[in-house]
Amino acid sequence: MLLIDDDVDDRMIFGDVLKELVPDIIYNEAINGEDALTKLGNGLLPDIIFVDLNMPRIDGKQFLAEIQKLEQLRHIPVIIYTTSSHESDKKETRALGAAYFLTKPNSLHELNLVLKGILERTIAYEVK
């Protein structure tokens, strides 16, 4: 799994909830789309990618557009994980190939439930 988010607190919370759900998951982080593309170019091949929309350098939409150009990455489900709830962002990211659009939940419990559902549907992880 790869989470791309420039907010260190959001990465920490996401990682904590994810490790609680799937303790043996291999979890990677990137601080923006540019960092993620470098890691993916160096051989990282996650089963699923979560990406924030608003980041410096290469944002979430630009990242989506870039990985759609790469045959070896195009099949990876990408889930938008953002504070935005704008319908225009949902439509645009869907058109760019996003599998899901997830507005960041307000509580750890809600994040736990949402991640559990996504993991079970998307990549069939054994989730607690």
UniProtKB/TrEMBL annotation:
What UniProt keywords are attached to this protein's entry?
Phosphoprotein
Q: Which domain of life is it from?
A: Bacteria
Database matches in Pfam families: Response_reg
Q: Which positions does the record annotate as the modified residue 4-aspartylphosphate?
A: 52
Q: Name one GO biological process term.
A: phosphorelay signal transduction system
Residue span(s) of domain Response regulatory: 1-119
Q: What is this protein called?
A: Response regulator
Natural source organism: Chitinophaga solisilvae
